[in-house]
Amino acid sequence: MDMIRRTLVVAAIGGAALAAAPVFAQDKFITVASTTSTENSGLFKAILPVFEKQTGIQVRVVALGTGQALDLARRGDADVLFVHNKRAEEKFVAEGYGIDRNDVMYNDFVLVGPKSDPAKVGGGKDILVALKTIEAAKAPFASRGDKSGTHSAELRYWKAAGVDPTAGKGSWYRETGSGMGATLNTASGMSAYVLTDRGTWLSFKNRGDLTVLVEGDPRLFNQYGIMLVNPAKHPHVKKDMGQVFIDWVLSPAGQKQIASYKIGGQQLFFPNAKQ
Amino acid sequence: MNSLHEAFGQAAALVASGDATLIEIVLLSLRVSLTAVLVAALIGLPIGAAIAVGRFPGRRTLIVVLNALMGLPPVVVGLLVYLLLSRAGPLGALGILFTPTAMVIAQTVLILPIIAALSRQAIEDAWSEYQEQLRSLGAGRLSAAFTLLWDTRFSLLTAVLAGFGRAAAEVGAVMIVGGNIDGVTRVMTTAIALETSKGDLPLALGLGVILISLVLILNAAAYLTKEAAQRRYG
Predict the structure, then answer these.
(1) Is residue B120 domain-resident?
(2) Measuring CA to CA, which of A95, A124, A151, B173 is 20 to 30 A from B190?
């Protein structure tokens, strides 16, 4: 009995110590709300250590769809926002939630689909024509359906093509309501067409039968922007450290780091900050 | 089938390499879930005992609610704790969103009903069996509750292990309140979700194999401890 009691006491003390142990050694940090494309593609893993070493500021990235990242920042749960939906970002700034939005870099969207290409859109350069053809063929199309930057872009293309894909809901148009990777997994599983950013595609490993079918349309341009969450709205925002990070990303040194990140010899993001 | 094979290969290679990142992720998983279990047990066991021996209005309703809460969806718990801890939420000033502490809170909320409900049942069964005996010894409800907590300790261990299993396995809550931040709040389950979204299914499954093995080892250790204790103290 005594021994068990003693064991219990030791366990309780151990547990309490476990709980009370300092959460982090590092307390100089900022939280960046960003998108799955920048995190999943490995960009942050490549460039952040360089910044952290130079400044001693740890960058904690929470990777979400752009819609969710904007919402998180709107609630004040991040210091810096690094996403890719220019219109939504400008609205975010106009509403006073963010300040000083800057272009950082771009890549492009590509339309991928099964090699068998049932709608015969492969090799095309016009995304609108491709979407119209897919709709006419009622070929399976997987949509993010999650208000992310990529989903917003997809909806813009459908609109420009004069097609309402939601009429095909439940049959050929399938909204996964999840991230880019999860949607690619789904598309791969059901041999569907899907719009993806090139970065996620290049780093994605479960391609199965999927291949790039349409690329190179200037409309597929995908701009990334960065901004500070407005300290006037959220006084706890670490504006100085956040600004140090933003300045570095936009500086020649940061831009060079972005340009030098490659997968299989292919550059994923192209810096275009105004110097 | 091939990828299953690959997954076990990946798991073995990962373990053999002693990868520092992997160790960090495993330790954080254990720290978060074990802390949550400890807190949930400290709160949940007395609640279970109190409901088991207590007689008060609304008791039956409470039992039904408690049993139902065992099925709390992790993503809902995550969302609730997120809204609570968010800067715009009531506890936002604490600034603990996206930390392991937030993850412990979410998992504690998630498994507290499991531990309380299962221990309530175990203690109530013992109570109906020993009620008269305890009463004849002059035990009030409070001291009976403590006696029963001690007497049913081996059944309660299973209740606590059920809570631990749930905590170690869930991804929905820790993903939302932890943010899956590399090196800070990334645990086994969120790492598995991340690798899945990168399409690296063998690595994801490999991590899954490691997680299941860990849970197995912990359960075996608990079982052996219990057996040894039972032999010694009956």
Answers:
(1) yes
(2) A151
